Amino acid sequence: MSEKEKKKRQVLDIGRLEGTLSRSSPELYSYLEKESLLTGRKKHEIIEEALSRLILEREVVASGLTMEQLLAAWDIKDRIDRMAMDKMVRFGLDFIRGFLINVGDMISAIQMSREEQMAKILEEEKKKDIDYQMKRTQAEIIGQVMNVMLPLILNTLQTVYKAQGINIPVVESKVEKKEEMELEVV
């Protein structure tokens, strides 16, 4: 028998039971319909719960328990259930807390790694920038030294040539300020 046939047979059996109940006990069936509408549960679920209670009551009566003993047993069962639920909740909270701590640690580690990488990149960029600034400054200093030294060298050469009796045209050195040009530094 396939799964589909089993399901169909189960539905038919439930329908037969409800049909028999509606014909044999219309008052009970109307109560079943009202209960189904009020609770939103299916009729066969209500019947199942009622039968479970009936079986439990018969087992209690057969065991010879008094009502006080039964209530005491239910009270003990409820306390055990609450303790078990409390332990489950505490376990769940501890698990979640540990999980969140681990996730927080992982996020912190990722952020630290990212910050270290960013610091390394920034340090390299600063170093490149410092190297560029240093080379640019050196080029500017050499240019200015040459502007200052050129007239001195020319005057010294003129004095040496005059002392040796060589006539050379007098060159007046005027240091002209040129427009600053951006020097290409490699």
Descriptive overview:
The chain is mostly helical and 186 residues long. It has a domain at 3-64. The protein has helices spanning 3-24, 26-39, 43-63, 67-164. Helix 1 (3-24) packs across helix 2. The radius of gyration is 51 Å and the shape is rod-shaped. The chain starts with a helix and ends in a 22-residue tail after the last helix.
Strand count, sense and barrel status of the largest sheet are: none
Overall shape: it is rod-shaped
**How many helical elements?**
4
Helix content: over 70%
Q: Could you tell me the number of beta strands?
A: 0
Distance between the termini: 86 Å
Strand content: under 5%
Low-confidence stretches: 173-186
Task: Name the helix and strand elements from N-terminus to C-terminus, one letter apiece.
Answer: HHHH
Radius of gyration: 51 Å
Mean pLDDT: 80
Assign the structural class, choosing from mainly alpha, mainly beta, alpha/beta, alpha+beta, or little secondary structure.
Answer: mainly alpha
What's the gist of this structure?
The chain has a domain at 3-64.
Map the helices and strands.
Layout: H1 3-24, H2 26-39, H3 43-63, H4 67-164
Helix pairs in contact: 1-2
Keywords:
single chain; 186 residues; mainly alpha; 4 helices; rod-shaped; disordered C terminus
